[in-house]
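Repro:
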Amino acid sequence: MTDRPLALITGASGGIGLDLARCAAADGYDVVLTARRKDALEAAAGEIASRYRVSASVIADDLTDPAAPARIVAGIDRPIDVLVNNAGFGVWESFAESDPTEIDDMVRVNVAALTTLTRLVLPAMIERGRGGVLNVASVAGFMSGPHAATYYATKNYVLALSEALAHEVASAGVTVSALCPGPVATGFQNRSGQGDSLVKGPMTMDAASVARIGWSGFRSGKRVIVPGVANKIFTQLPRIAPRRLLSHAIGRVQDI
């Protein structure tokens, strides 16, 4: 048994999740990586263990299954010091034309699994008086998004939940943060149907930079972390623009 703290990272087979796992390992955490693709997880774990000299293990599971969060936590025989809820996906399509199963799966992963995992690990963190949860939200969480309505709504939920929990647990010595990146060129775009049309502008950042900023902000106790100047400006638009006008503008951009 090691004395190093342990971080559990979901959606850790690539993109921001993998880079957040690297950040945790560089900070001296053993890591447990979970996602659907076991081969990609094992490759990532091998790289992290070799590079950072920490323990890196994998749990392959599918968070669209409501029983998956409990299985994942039950498969870890040590206290979880940090939970990184990174797993998530989007669908870029008119709500009425979307596949109902895909919408249901998105809500299960982006909302239900994140909530269940947090509820499973947070009480023990509070009891120990240390630890934290880093939830990956999005700049989408600050507004509504026609043609990506459910995705935006799930990220609104993640942001709201994170801010509320941060207040609830602050006196217990536990940190809850929401990382809210803008466009990042990862496999996310291919799955969502978004393509690369929204990842070529000033808001775009690479996954490694987003992860470094997110991990640093979380470790310093920030409740909401928005990487990049352009993204910070974007999140302020709801304060100065009428909601209907803003939704119309975003709908025009999202209608690809």
